Predict the 3D structure of the following.
Amino acid sequence: MICLSASKQGADTLLGYLGGTLDPAQRAEVERHAEQCAECRGLLAVSTQLEEWTAPAVSADFDARLYARIAQEAQKPWWRRMLWRPALPVAAAAFAVLALALFVTGPGTQETPTEVRPGNATEIQQVDQALEDLELLMPLDSSSAAPASAGQASGKI
């Protein structure tokens, strides 16, 4: 026999067993299989316990109390009926996180403008290179200085 928990056919067989729609031979086969298979035995035990369970009785005035509660809720203003109550803890947590973030990154932790930044040396080199390029693009005159002046312009500042 196919295990009741292993396939769709087994699930259909289990439903037939629980519903009482199986013929006696199939029913006996399911019971023999359940004796050998612990998982299927557990499924049948749970179904047996569910069949034996009885739901508690509903009180006689249940409907009247239910309709009175519905009417009471309907008389409240619309803003009180909204589902904002669960949002209060979330809003409080968000506020706490925001306050903590402002406390940690407050005005005392900002950078001061007098700090030396590592990019300054690169900028000086770029300006120096741009000046050298401009000197190369200038037309040469007979009155212009010797190329030694170009060497002086490319010196370190």
Summary: DSSP finds eight helices and no strands in the chain. The longest helix spans residues 87-104. The mean pLDDT is 76.
